[in-house]
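Entry 14. Structure prediction run on the chain below.
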Amino acid sequence: MPDDPEPPPTTHAAATAARAIADDRTLADTPVVVVGLHPADAVLELARALPAQPDGYSRRLIILEADGRPPPPRLASLLDDHRVTRLRGPDAPARLARYLDDHSLTTLPRAAFVSAAPGSPPPADIQRVMIDALQRQGGETARLRAAIDQRDARRTPGYHARRLTDRAGDAPRVLIGTTRFSTYVRHASRDLAEAFRALGFRARVLEEPDGHSRLAPLAWLDAFHTFDPDTAIVINYPRSTLRAVAPTSVPWVCWTQDALPHLFDRAAAGSLTDADFVVGHIFPELWLSLGYPRRRLVSLPTVACPRKFHDRDAEHSPDPAVAIISRHAETPDQLQRRLLALLAWNPPLANALGSLTAPIADAVRDARASPLSKRLSELTAEALAPLRAGPREHALALRQFVLPVAERVLRHQTLEWAAEIVRRRGWELRLYGKGWESHPTLARHARGEADHGEPLRLAYRRAAVTLHAAAAATLHQRVAECALSGGLPLVFWHADSFSTAAARALHAAAQRQPPDRRSPPAFHTSIHPELADLARARADLGLESPDPVAPRPDKLDSILAAPPPEPAHDPLWLLGPPGLSGYWDAASLESAVERAILDPDFRRRRSLAIADKVHAHLTTDAAAHRLVSVITERLAHQPGIAA
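Output returned:
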């Protein structure tokens, strides 16, 4: 006997209603109330139409079972799903009201799929329950916003600056806003909180309670009201993106990690106040073309947690294995098709960027000798020229399409080299991360995901080397984590990898030999050891360096106009010359892996040398200390804010 005796028209109408709910993009971040489980086909249609989003979030289904009918057997699997909440009994509407009040810190449902089965509550009753819950949530949001504003109005200027510097009394408080729908960002936020606690702060991390919820504005206001932080650190989001919930008086740190569209907006740049800071990976476009004030930008490297990643256990002989930790299992072609599909709404842009497949691959092949970042920017500009794109469009196309595709080409090129080397030499390739088990040619090397903690630490430690290849960031948290764990990172070196070392060397040379404006600058390597070291490092890649070094006056002025780059941003300072720390083609990769496997003492010395510098400059503890110093120093010089 069929589960659902309703006639086909009813089933069809219900399925149509379910599809309409799923297709409404304004509801994408809200749960759905399902009233009754009949017809089962329509409920299944709704569930299938709400798959997990790319970031891992899946919408919660709040199922009300008030009619007393047993659930259809074919819904058993769905009802066991973690995203399903079941409220059963004739008082299900009242239970729904209590449930929504208990979850008012998350987004609430604004749509319901209501069955027409006998015994189901009237649709109007369910709508009334949802509307009332939304109104109560809105009222509490307004109340907390007003309470926070009144509290801030009673405080004198400089209140938070004094709290951050005077730790004799109540410990200063830092609120770190993050998301569970991430990889590095979530772990970095929690690790940073531990670092602040080690400095004597009280730290709270604000994130979604589960994989089926999004935070409502009320969650932020509740945190600002009850925790009363002295500074807020939010990864990737400036204050302007959360203006409705962000108090204006609290120092706000936007820690940039990803090239998200809202960062490349002149409005975001113009909204920065004296209590706003943008730190982390500072994309050059932010201040070169989008108007971000340089004084509000603070470059900080990606860092590693010394508590998770350490080398305190007994000596261990590494395996003859090459490790790669990456979630980038999509091939370059697969990635490009996926990114272009997201641009289907803009065919001219999709066609322009789609034409760059071969030029991007050519640029990656030439990266050893030719600056890759410059070439990729040129390719982007050439492709967008017919579209009359502005600086923001150029930045987004470069950061969200061209660079990711170039990164993928580069990393999979490294994988091809590594796979061939280990096959021929009888070594092992270990690919950690999601998706490698489905790779068309590398699936046999997949080792699953290594959780961010002890499993990942052991993956670094037990492999002879861990490879890192990047088009834009030779330094990466993987490099720091690996060294702290007692492993040996090997990085892909290319022409751009020397840019920070070159800027540091020119700063040092100009200090030693101030430029004479009456003649072009000329710095001899025999006089300037930093330039000599740079020339020797470039020679490892077969690159020639001029002697004397004679930069264009305007280029030198541009370099000297900014403070000298910090050593922690310089791969050459951290890792040593390419011949000791990386590779640039298949032959150099094989040589570097061979030395690490055959000479464990060399591997150990190199690992310790890198780890010593990481401990001093590239840990979450160092980042927390730097953030406090930057905030307090700059607030101390701001009129109306200083204590």
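DSSP finds 25 helices and 15 strands in the chain.
Filed with the rest of this week's runs.
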